[in-house]
Design goal:
Length: about 180
């Protein structure tokens, strides 16, 4: 390589790195609700009338006070002062719905769902959390891990691979 090519590549590398940094900081500010003046807006939680669209409600059902017992749980951290857990659940999808259709966990828990499509192909979507797990074929099982950091009630549903009768739904309840 000639000296001029090395300089050109170095300049392009610095420009690309600068654009990446700009994008990261811009996106972080957007997620935190920080405007161009550096002031924070209201938290990014949709108003109640929009909540159903996004599948989220900040309310916790009054009858849900403990976590759902899954097939296993383990500490999520080696730090004994943290009370977060890794929670493991089996979930089956059929034309009748998801089983279990309601799961309660604590804020900060890591959840892993062993998702089995029993009588057809199904996918799993947590719209508000932005977690979409692609289609699982009939008889197959896939592991779906995700974290919980916002307390409230979240809808999960099939999105593209649903039974002939329409969408099936369930709720994930994240206790504070």
């Amino acid at each position: 390589m000639t000296r001029q090519q090395i300089i050109t590549l170095s300049v392009l590398g610095v420009i690309v790195f600068g654009l990446i940094l700009f994008g990261v900081f811009y996106q972080k500010n957007q997620l935190l609700g920080i405007d161009e003046r550096g002031q924070q807006d209201e938290p990014i939680i949709p108003p109640r009338e929009e909540a159903k669209t996004f599948g989220y409600s900040p309310e916790i059902p009054k009858d849900v006070v403990t976590t759902t017992v899954g097939k296993a749980e383990a500490p999520a951290s080696g730090n004994p002062s943290l009370d977060t857990k890794m929670r493991f659940y089996d979930m089956k999808a059929t034309v009748r719905g998801f089983s279990p259709s309601n799961i309660a966990v604590n804020k900060g828990d890591t959840v892993e769902i062993d998702f089995t499509a029993v009588d057809g192909a199904y996918d799993l979507d947590f719209p508000y959390l932005g977690a979409y797990f692609s289609t699982v074929k009939k008889g197959e099982m896939k592991k779906f891990p995700f974290d919980t950091s916002i307390p409230g009630t979240f809808i999960f549903e099939c999105r593209n691979s649903c039974p002939p009768g329409g969408k099936i739904q369930g709720t994930l309840i994240v206790l504070p």
